[in-house]
Design the sequence.
């Protein structure tokens, strides 16, 4: 029975992931730019001390919110920002410092990745979502990289999800390894779990 439930949950999550990625990729460029700008503004307003922390963020792929202008602005204010590096499948991510014009090469998932620069330990992670639920559980791409990374880093970084309003769902059917986000930022604002507003 438990196996049947896990199988059904897995199918549900795969279908939800595909649907949400398709909706995101259907966004016209101007709409994606508008929503990304709103997300960056809300991040800056809700977390004004980001430039004082080491911030890990993700290179935008498949029409994810574009945080590159925010990362550049944090650097201009004296902050340090880093991109994730897949060391080996099944292991936590490492993070390498990023700066504009840094040389990048596609990794095994075809995501631009730094080839040099210092390895940093992020204090804040800005995590794209494919879906996020009422419990602040995030549906990613299914590799488990960020859950392993959050579980491995001590102290745990502040985990802030970034995505669009249409990616909010009642439940992603979280699994035992899933860890909730500390906050979620969309084009309409920042939300924290109940009791942490």
Sequence:
């Amino acid at each position: 029975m438990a196996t049947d439930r896990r199988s059904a949950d897995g199918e549900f999550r795969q279908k939800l992931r595909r649907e949400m990625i398709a909706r995101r990729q259907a966004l016209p460029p101007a709409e994606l730019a508008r929503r990304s700008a709103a997300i960056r503004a809300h991040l800056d307003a809700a977390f004004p001390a980001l430039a004082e922390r080491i911030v890990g963020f993700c290179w935008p792929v498949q029409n994810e919110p574009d945080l590159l202008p925010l990362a550049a602005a944090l650097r201009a204010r004296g902050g340090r920002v880093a991109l994730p590096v897949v060391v080996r499948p099944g292991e936590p991510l490492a993070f390498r410092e990023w700066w504009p014009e840094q040389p990048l090469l596609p990794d095994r998932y075809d995501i631009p990745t730094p080839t040099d620069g210092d390895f940093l330990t992020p204090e804040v992670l800005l995590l794209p979502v494919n879906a996020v639920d009422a419990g602040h559980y995030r549906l990613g791409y299914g590799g488990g990289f960020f859950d392993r990374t959050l579980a491995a880093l001590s102290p745990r970084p502040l985990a802030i999800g970034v995505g669009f309003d249409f990616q909010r769902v009642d439940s992603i059917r979280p699994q035992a390894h899933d860890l909730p986000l500390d906050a979620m930022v969309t084009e309409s604002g920042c939300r924290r779990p109940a009791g942490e507003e």
